[in-house]
Write a structure and sequence with these properties.
A hairpin with a 2-residue loop joins strand 1 (25-28) and strand 2. The protein is of the alpha/beta class. Helix content is 29%, strand content 27%. The strands form three sheets. It has a seven-stranded mixed β-sheet with strand order 5-8-4-3-9-10-11, with helices on both faces. It has a two-stranded antiparallel sheet with strand order 1-2. Strands 6-7 form a two-stranded antiparallel sheet. The radius of gyration is 17 Å and the shape is globular. Helix 3 (44-58) crosses helix 4.
């Protein structure tokens, strides 16, 4: 079981309500409620507060590096790495980085780069040193395929994953449960519960 102690972390309920209000959901790629964090990016004050809360959670956890998933994990992970003053590395889609190592292919809830629901991740060969304590971050955990592929890749490079964090876990897809079952040594955490996320996005008609 994951043994990181986050039990004393505050719940930030008021902050969560404000942040959730700018994260609408849409029907997208066959999923009825797909949450879009673009609204958070458009609100500098709430975006800054989000990074502050994440930094408060992870300060003192002896994190050596932060890895962000292609592509929204880059948006969240980079300012967090700056706040914690630790290096950041990218988990990119296969063939997108030179001097990289590529993990095994995985499937997800919609068509991937191979047109059949499959993708693979790669990281720079210089990203992780054996024993590095790594925080992984993304916007969503959906079916869990991307996160599990990232965990496998980091562990294959002898990194130690402190926690896998996301803004939102789509509980109805069961991805988080799959990740926890496959990697019981890794804490999987989501910042905002689906109970807070009740803003339905309006699709604008094309002119």
């Amino acid at each position: 079981m994951a043994d990181n102690n986050f039990a004393t972390a505050p719940d930030y309920e008021e902050d969560k309500r404000k942040i959730a209000a700018v994260i609408p959901y849409y029907a997208f790629h066959g999923i009825d409620r797909f949450y879009d964090i673009s609204g958070l990016m458009l609100d500098p004050a709430l975006f800054r507060r989000t990074v502050e809360i994440l930094a408060e959670r992870y300060k003192g956890q002896a994190i050596d590096k932060i890895g962000g998933f292609d592509a929204r994990g880059f948006v969240l992970g980079t300012p967090l790495a700056l706040a914690l003053e630790v290096p950041f590395f990218m988990l990119r889609k296969q063939s997108k980085l030179p001097n990289s190592v590529t993990g095994a292919s995985y499937t997800k809830e919609y068509k991937g780069d191979d047109g059949q629901g499959g993708d693979a991740l790669c990281i720079s060969r210089t990203a992780i040193q054996p024993g590095d304590r790594v925080l992984l971050i993304d916007d969503l955990i959906a079916t869990g395929g991307t996160l599990m592929a990232g965990l496998d890749l980091v562990k294959a490079q002898q990194g130690v994953v402190v926690e896998a964090a996301c803004m939102i876990e789509l509980g109805f897809l069961g991805g988080g449960k799959k990740v926890r079952e496959k990697h019981p040594d890794v804490s999987v955490w989501s910042f905002i519960s689906e109970k807070h996320l009740q803003t339905k996005g309006e699709v604008m008609a094309k002119e």
